[in-house]
C-alpha cells in the first residue's frame, strides 16, 4: 500500500479532519458539473467494470463508448458543447449511481482538497453538503484517503 499523500498530510500537521467532519450529500449534482481542475471523472479498470455492469453492457463496450485515455490516464469522455459529466441527468441526478466510480463515491474527502486552504476554497464554498448530516470520523476519512491513493495508481491501466 502506498503512503505518500497521507504521510505528507501528517508531516504538514494539517490533519484538521481527524476531529471529524460533518457532511451529507444534498443531491445538488454540483460535484458532477465541470468546475475547473476537478472537472474530469477518472477511471480505473474496476470503475469501468462497475459502471459497465450497472448499465448492462460489457466493459469493453463501455470503455469504447464512454471513455478516453488522455496523457496516459483513463477518464470519461465529455461532450463538446457541455463539459458536465455525461451521466448527469436533469442537472442533479447520476444516471449510473449504483455503479458510480471511486472519485464520485469519495467526494469531498479527496486528498487534494483536504488541506485547510483547499477545503475552504474548493469545498466549503462549493458543496452544499458540508455542515449537514452525520459526522465522518477521522478513521473513516483516512480509510477513504488510503483507498484513493491506491485508486490513483490504477487510472492509467
Ligand atoms: S458518474 Fe455520476 S456521480 Fe460521477 S460525476 Fe458522473 S453523474 Fe456525477
Strands, helices and their partners?
Elements lengths: L3 H8 L9 E3 L21 H11 L3 H8 E4 L2 E4 L11 E2 L3 E2 L7 H5 L9 H9 L5 E7 L1 H15 L5
Antiparallel strand pairs: 1-6, 2-3, 4-5
Overview of the molecule:
The chain is about 35% helix and about 15% strand. The chain has one domain. A two-stranded antiparallel ribbon has the order 1-6. It has a two-stranded antiparallel sheet with strand order 2-3. The model is unreliable at about 1-10 (pLDDT under 50). About 20% of the residues are buried. The protein is an alpha+beta fold and about 160 residues long.
Distance between the termini: 17 Å
Number of domains: 1
Structural class call reads alpha+beta
Question: Level of helix content?
Answer: 25-40%
Side-by-side strand order of the widest sheet = 1-6
Uncertain segments: 1-9
Number of helices: 6
